[in-house]
Structure formats: C-alpha cells, structure tokens
Amino acid sequence: MRLYCHFVLFFLVSYSVFSQSKFNAFLKPSDTLNKSRRNTVVISESVLASATLIGLNQLWYADYPRSSFKTLNDSGEWLQMDKMGHAFSSYQLGRVGANSLEWAGVSERNQLIYGSTIGLGFLTAVEVLDGFSEEWGFSWTDMAANTAGTGLYVGQELLWKEQRIILKYSFHRTQFAIQRPNKLGNGLTEEFLKDYNGQTYWLSANINSFLKTETIPNWLNFAFGYGAEGMLTGESSDLNFTNQNRRRQFYFSLDVDLTKIKTNSNVLKTVFSVFNVVKVPFPALELSDDGRSKWHFIYF
Question: Can you give the pLDDT at residue 5?
C-alpha cells in the first residue's frame, strides 16, 4: 500500500511538472508569426469586443431614450477624474492588444497598428453609443483622453522600444459613496468603478530605464499620482449638493514595475504583466490644491 501511494504521488508530481512545463511553453511568445495564435487572438478579441458592445447596448443604453447623434462638453466634471479613467483604459487595453499579438509572433509594426489601437477603437465605439443616447452624448474630451492613453503607449514604443512610463491605478474606499450609493456605487465592486473619490491614477516611471545605473534595482519606479475627493456630483454647481468640499490631490511615491523582475517562468511573466496595472502600495506624500499636505505611511 505504501509503495502504491508513493507511485501515485510520483505520478501526480510528474504530471503536474509536465503540465506546468507545457503551459509555460504555451505562454512563451513566438519568435516568428504563428498564424494559429494570431487567428485565435483576432477572433477572441473581436468576439469579446462585440459581445461587450451588444451587452452594453441591450443592458445599459436600452434603459434610456434614444436620440439623434449629439455631442456634449463634460470637460469640467469630476475634476477630470473620469478623463484619467479613459486614458488609463485606453492605455491598458492597447498594452494587452499589443502583447497578445507579440505572443502570436506578429511584427512590431503590426503590433502597434492593430494591437495598441484596440483600446482606442473600442472606447470610440462606446462614445458613439453615448452620442445616440438622450442621457449622455459624444464627448470630445473623452476622445482626447482615449487618444492620450493610446498615444502614451505607442509613443514610448516608437521612441524607446519599451514602456518606461506606465499608467497605473489604485483604489481605496471612501466616506462619499455611502452618501450617494446610486451614483458612486453600492458596495466594494461598484465603488471600485464608480467612486472617483477613492481612485488614484499614476504615471509610474522606471528609474533605471532613464539613469542606467547599477545601484538601483531594475524594478524600482518613481510614481506621480493624481486623485480628487469631496465629489458627490460631477459639477460643483449642483444645487442639490451644496456642501461639497472638492479638491485635487497630487501624490509622490515609489512603485514596482513587476515586468522588470527577472524570471525564466513564462507563467510568472504573464502574472506579473496582468498585475502590473495596479500601483504597489508604498509610503506617499500628498499635496492638495488647497495648500494642505499629508504623509501616508502606506498609500493605495
């Protein structure tokens, strides 16, 4: 019986190692064009984007009256936190699109043309749906933010062939969502997306990519963050909420570029790439536009 157990254990461990080895090889980017992988990426992204747009149209926009196409100027809303969200989404979707085509062995030129612009294309389609909704409208400032996010990715690839400055996100719960849960979210999942008061967007710059020193770890970044709080509505002029104390916040902190951590495991490289959208908690200095400053032992 003991021999049988040892044999089963050996079999399971060997199979696990073999499976991990196969999965590790699967995740390794192809050196040359792999048409099967390329087709899988293109079909998967097309189906996912189409399903998402159809779902938005049926589950979200269907609840509001349609209208003829119109534009709006919402540049002053939410202290531009919503614009930061647009830039972040466009940048990260473009990064995923380009990396997916890199995995398939697609040329760098086509990665930029067809991969990094996927975020801009998807968010433009969402803006068009907004334009035909009575509740909203096509926002040129949203489009400018979407373009800026894609431009940040493409520009660095053209200039440096790498992402030295990463657009990241962090979130903490605030007291404001409970005051207006229908607008700012009811519960952690909704607040994560809707409560601009708890969101911070970061430009995380890799120090060694610029200084080229051997004394600083390759994964260490300097991060500049932007946030805002005291917002219960998009505009401060809303007469139903006159007690808002809206202020912008600027942060200085450190961060970790997870993709700079050396490993031979393609599984870990993939995991690091996925989680590299999030700012790693570090001490941070906060400066507000009302002149106040605050030190955070750990900020997220």
Answer: 42
